[in-house]
Amino acid sequence: MPACGSEDNRSSGCAGFAPREAPSSLTLMAKKSNSCRVLIADDHAPFRDSVRKLIESENGFSVAGEAGDGREAVEKTRELQPDVLLLDLAMPRRNGLEALRELASSSSPAHTIVLTAAIDKSQLVEALRLGARGVVLKDSAIEVLPEALHSVMAGQYWVARETVGGLIEALRSVESPAEPRAEHQFDLTERELEIVEAVVAGFSNKDIANQFSISEHTVKHHLSSVFDKLGVSSRLELALFALNHELVGRN
Questions:
Q1: Does residue 38 carry a pLDDT above 90?
Q2: pLDDT in tens, 145-171
Q3: Residue among 133, 135, 111, 110 at smallest CA distance from 121
Q4: DSSP states of 190-248 as a string?
Q5: 128 and 98 within one domain
Q6: Residue 12 maps to a domain
């Protein structure tokens, strides 16, 4: 699949420069076929319309379809196979978490960004555990959706800045199942595992350095090694990875 949302795609719009000639219909069709296809699932038609217009104006993205409830969201995701699913958590017939759980069981390839009107830490953590790659507050969706779409298509998590602290705190309170953990398969050292737990607990590099009587430089070195071994690129991704792979809660 083309690198949807890549830097090349984002820079190809050349905002502020008029094209030398109007693109042909064939060019437009080819451009649309190479775009990242988004399915909008929300039970409010005016909101869907606003999001549709935003996506259609964003270079590299197109709207694959719309769904007005959770059941329809599941059906259309399976039918249309979009690259991104924008999924409202509060919908009739099947709420967003139920739809996400059903899609997760069928290994849907769509990158899901959940839409929510209010922060509910337990719901957001559950959504992320079920495979959601982003969280967007509906009252700021028009401003932040372009960045969120590009981020998740680049393989990153995107979480509204206001929610990051709450999510890390919620992750800290989640109890992991009493099953064997998989730390050894990632070749993490004992100190690296301790630092992973500290990150999930929400500690800063300075806090971690003080806790283990090491320098901040050493903390950064350990984190760089952990990021490389686990294939993550941010503290939030590390926290979610640790939760999903049961690397935390070691007693």
A1: yes
A2: 998 999 888 877 787 654 555 556 555
A3: 135
A4: HHHHHHHHHHHTT--HHHHHHHHT--HHHHHHHHHHHHHHHT--SHHHHHHHHHHTT-S
A5: yes
A6: yes
Q: Cα–Cα distance between 222 and 228 in angstroms, integer?
A: 10
Domain endpoint, select from 148, 169, 190: 169
Asked whether 231 and 239 are in contact (CB, 8 A), the reply is no
21: helix, strand or coil: coil
Q: Are 51 and 145 in contact (CB under 8 A)?
A: yes
CA–CA distance, 62 with 33 (Å, rounded to integer): 9
The answer to whether residues 134 and 181 belong to one domain is: no
Angstrom distance (rounded) from CA 110 to CA 8: 22
In a domain, 26, yes or no: yes
Model pTM score: 0.64
Please tell me the least confidently modeled range out of 18-32, 59-73, 214-228, 230-244. Answer: 18-32
**Domain final residue pick, 169, 204, 223:** 169
pLDDT one-digit tens code per residue, 73-97: 999 999 999 999 999 998 988 898 9
Contact present, 146 and 58 (Cβ < 8 Å):
yes
DSSP codes of every residue in 41-69: E-S-HHHHHHHHHHHHTSTTEEEEEEESS
> 140 and 182 in one domain?
no
Range of the domain at 214: 175-244
Residue 204 lies in a domain: yes
Q: Which helix (H) or strand (E) holds 30?
A: helix 25-33
Strands (E), 68-133: 84-88, 111-116
